Amino acid sequence: MKNIIDHNVISQVLELINWKKADHNQYMYECAEGYLSRLMPDYPQVQTQIMKSATFWKWWQQHWEKRDMQFIETVDEETPGMIDPVELYKEIHDPRALLAGVYLNGQVLQESYASLIELITKEQEVAA
């Protein structure tokens, strides 16, 4: 799984929502944590292991960036002042919405989750 982050996308997002990179990184981390805690509420140890996985973070960033690009397109298409960019950004990345499959993003995430777990399992077997 490639880890290619388009820094132009991040720069555009930061400008649109008027956040610092550290705030953005913290929000991404909190959303990942929220996603996993809602996905498997009865397995905190598994959540912890997954959060430590480089494979998980590559997967999470890849899907995050896709949602960021969707966010940029949506903001660009809207009339200024018609939407609150921060609220829209939070809605697009909301772990509850992603898990509910309310948005296509959630469905894509759920479909690729099984592949992710398989990669993490193999990663841990090699390390053992």
Would you write up a description of this structure?
The protein is an all-alpha fold and 128 residues long. Helices cover 79% and strands 0% of the residues. The protein is built from 7 helices and no strands. The chain has helices spanning 7-17, 21-39, 44-51, 54-77, 85-93, 95-100, 104-127. Helix 1 (7-17) packs across helix 4 and helix 2 (21-39) runs antiparallel to helix 3 (44-51). It is elongated. The two termini are 21 Å apart.
Could you write a compact summary of the structure shown?
The chain has 128 residues and is mainly α.
Q: How is the topology of this model organized?
A:
Blueprint: H1 7-17, H2 21-39, H3 44-51, H4 54-77, H5 85-93, H6 95-100, H7 104-127
Helix pairs in contact: 1-4, 2-3, 4-5, 4-7
Helix count equals: 7
Helical content band: over 70%
Approximate shape: elongated
User: What number is the mean pLDDT?
Assistant: 84
- Say how many strands there are: 0
- In percent terms, what proportion of residues is strand? under 5%
Radius of gyration from the CA trace?
Answer: 15 Å
* Sheet having the most strands: none
Parts with pLDDT < 50 across at least 5 consecutive residues:
none
Secondary structural class: mainly alpha
Strand-and-helix sequence, N→C? HHHHHHH
* Straight-line distance between termini: 21 Å
Sum up the structure in keywords:
single chain; 128 residues; mainly alpha; 7 helices; 0% strand; elongated
